[in-house]
Amino acid sequence: MRNRKVTQLFAGLMVTALVLTGGVVPPTTSLAATKTVTIRTQKELRAALKDPKVTSIVIKTAKGVTFTIKDGDYSDKKLVISSPKATIKNYASFEKIEIRDGNTVYDRGEGNQIVVKDKNELKFVAGKRAADVNIMVTSRAVRSTLSIMQRIQRL
Which pTM does this prediction carry? Predict the structure, then answer.
C-alpha cells in the first residue's frame, strides 16, 4: 500500500512538473504565420486579402476572368499571378508581385516591386496612379508589352 501511494505521488509530481514546464516555454508559431493560399475567384481573393495569416496569394485559374484588387496596403503579402487567360487590375500596394503567367496585368499601386517571369505573351500596364514601381524582367524568352504611363523607379 505504501509503494502504491509513493508511485501515485511521484506520478502526480511528474505531471505537475510537465504542466509547469510547458506553460513557461512559449509555443513556436513561425510556421503558422506563413500561409500561402491559391485562389480561383474574386470572392476567394477578397477573403485572402482580409486574412492576416495569409502571406502569399497565388491567383491560378485557366478561365478568362477579371480580378480587381481595390486600393489597400498589403505590404505584408506577396501576390503571384499564374493565370494565362486572366486579367488582373491592381490598385493596391504589395510587398512583391510576381507574374509567372498572365494575360493582362494593370498595376496602379504605389511602391510595388514587380518581377516578370512570364515566358508567354503578357500585356503589362503601369497606370498613371502607379508610383515608385520597380519592374524586373527575369525571363530571357519573354514576349511582353510594357505600357508605362507614370514614373517608374527602376526597370
Answer: 0.70
